[in-house]
Amino acid sequence: MSTVWFRISIALFVVGSFCAERSLACTCVAGPRPSNCSELKPTGPSFVGTVIDIENPPGEQRGAEQSGLSRYRFRIEENISGFAEKEVDIYSGRGGGDCSYHFRMGESYFVAPYKGTAGLMALYGEQPGKLMAGICTETQPAASATALLKALRARKKEGTAIVGVLRTEPGPDDFDHRIPDATVELRTENFTLSAQTDIGGVYLFHDIPAGTYRFAVKLPADFRVTADKGAVRQSITIADQTCYSKDIYAAQTERIDSP
Q1: How far, in Å, CA of 115 to CA of 99, rounded?
Q2: I want to staple 136 with a disulfide (CB 3.0 to 4.6 A). Which of 28, 191, 197, 242 is the partner?
Q3: Which residues are CB-neighbours of 257 under 8 A, at least 6 positions away?
């Protein structure tokens, strides 16, 4: 959730010795998702806005010239963090291999820009400091950012968060593994809140109303929550803290092989 958990790696390949031909190769590397309260920091600069002007748009045809930057003028409709102005210019590359984001006129986006470094901007023949957008950040159409925006708005209001890791209990012949794609629930008598663990086993709840909740976990069939950790029986009371950390442990059940 942007604390941008991605970094952009752009490799520059030079062919020939004088009139060198350049080609860019983009790699997006996912960083770790925050797994406790001390790592859960506010998002960086971001906004929701609509593209109202495009200068030097990327070529859509095969083999089109791709040098330089496209400039996208946005009308800001919601300042998530760091954008008090009504309009702003965002830049991006014009190619297909340079991690660039190709915005479309009249469409609404969630934009999480970053300042172009000297090394990156030198590839485009531009001065550093321009606000850049790319495919390796959480920039995306506003229509697909519903869950992300809900979390960011909650964090902006300093709503209460609960974060932790679902992991296996270390055994004598095993390591401490994290469990992805499992459902963690916070239950009360009146309603249930659900969150899915990511690839690193991290779950995250945002904007939790005050009250007392009981944890529940939907695990694979051959796993059970470790009883001595009290993950299911233990409740948590949301009061005036802004963040609670709780790891949940599970163990693989013993298999009885048929004779």
Answers
A1: 14
A2: 28
A3: none
- For residues 84 and 213, what is the distance between their CA atoms, to the nearest angstrom? 37
DSSP states of 68-132: SEEEEEEEEEEEEES--SSEEEEEEESSSSS-B----TT-EEEE--EEPPHHHHHTTT--TT-EE
CB 42, CB 116: distance < 8 Å? no
Closest C-alpha among 139, 142, 152, 150 to residue 40: 152
Q: Which helix (H) or strand (E) holds 208?
A: none
CA gap 207, 215 in Å, rounded:
16
Each of the 259 residues of the chain gets a pLDDT tens digit; together they read 333 344 444 444 333 322 333 445 677 776 667 777 776 665 679 999 999 999 999 987 777 778 899 999 999 999 998 999 999 999 999 987 788 999 999 999 999 999 999 988 998 889 999 999 999 888 999 999 887 787 777 666 666 888 888 888 765 555 568 888 889 999 998 899 999 888 888 888 887 888 889 888 887 776 666 654 444 556 788 877 778 888 888 876 655 444 4
What whole-number distance in Å separates Cα of residue 112 and Cα of residue 42?
Answer: 13
Q: Return the DSSP state at 15.
A: E
Predicted TM-score (pTM) of the model is 0.62
Two tokens, residue 187: 């239950």
Q: How many whole angstroms separate alpha carbon 25 and alpha carbon 109?
A: 25
Amino acid present at 180: P
The residue to which tokens 């974060």 are assigned: 163
